[in-house]
Amino acid sequence: MPTDIKSLTREEIEVQFKSWNESDFRVTQLLGWLYAHRVTSWDAMTNLPKSLREKLRDHSSLQILELARKQGSGDTTQKFLWKLADGQFIESVLIPANPALYGDASDRHTLCISTQVGCAYGCKFCASGLEGWKRNLGVHEIVEQVLAVERESCKLKVEGCKLSTNQPATFNRQPATVNNIVVMGMGEPLANYENLIKALKILNAPWGGGIGARKITISTSGLAPQIRRLALEPLQFRLAISLHGATDEVRNRIMPVNRKYPLKELVKACEEYQHEKGRMITLEYILIAGVNDSLEQTRPLASLARRLHAKVNLIPYNQVEGLAWERPGEEVCENFLAALEDQNVIATLRREKGGDIDAACGQLRLKTERELRRDGGKYSD
Ligand code: SAH
Ligand code: SF4
Description:
By secondary structure, this protein is α/β, with parallel strands linked by helices. The protein is built from 14 helices and twelve strands. The chain has helices spanning about 10-20, 25-35, 50-60, 100, 140-155, 195-205, 225-230, 250-255, 255-260, 265-275, 300-310, 330-340, 355-360, 365-375, and strands at about 65-70, 80-85, 90-95, 110, 115-120, 135, 180-185, 215-220, 240, 280-285, 310-315, 345-350.
């Protein structure tokens, strides 16, 4: 397989163009077509000489995510199921920004992106891990999720947002739909470390996605060595830890990764991250009935949060088909939140029902894969 053009940084493309005796101006034009116009074919790059387009075509692929299925519409959460070149499925979820969670005005959108097909970490409550790990996503497949979603929403709504092939290359960004990225889709991002970081660099670069590093949150189930490595990256990404239990006993029960990197080691890595970055970490805590929702659990959780100067995001568990876990009642969640606040912890409780990020990630794919198996290749909406 040739390298995909969206796996390359500007510098790498410049080296290639130099060897072809092409100027940097041509690189700027190419990047404009890819990231500002988000075109889907080489032929659309009308102001690049045909000979250069031919060379590019011979040398690289230009893979586009194929929309297999979409759920939701209008201002609410939209879930996109993409079919990859090898027939695998992944999900991205577009969420109207929740000011309480991400501190942004409500015309902003957050895109939740995937980094792997499936997940090897097998957390007991999660749809993404249910059928194991298939493969890592390539850099371009991570980057393309943002571009493909923007293409789809352009098609729907934005006046004057033309993706026609003969559009003059002014290279102003088309109106962006995605202002924030959360790497909370399918897969464990830090287990696909190199591709993740390169993709995020491209999505952050002014010549690429143009999304500020502080608007990009990486979520991990707790891969301590990779958290330390992330601490040394120059870009200031935000970090969220999927904690879900404040003791080894609870974490061991629901998250096998904790046996490899128990809390003590995870907390040390988080402290190192904070020391390097000086940034606030978020602790994600799904409330699962009878597992981690008792008020006693707020004590170790509050003490961890205070130690890490971390904010806690409480998320009532979203039911996954085929799994027996349940979300606690509203009162239990509210009391849990109040108990944390009483212990001087900054905490939020996600109150919206159904289709939020976590409900979505991994579940549409699981549903589709199951339907395909059942109905011999067809799925229905
Ligand atoms: N592998 C990474 C990122 C993807 S999971 C991680 O675990 O952090 C994104 C978030 O969704 C994690 O916090 C995960 O624990 C949470 N999640 C998974 N299944 C969920 C469910 N059924 N209900 C609510 N949150 C869920
Ligand atoms: Fe993988 Fe994250 Fe799901 Fe755990 S919660 S199985 S690490 S995607």
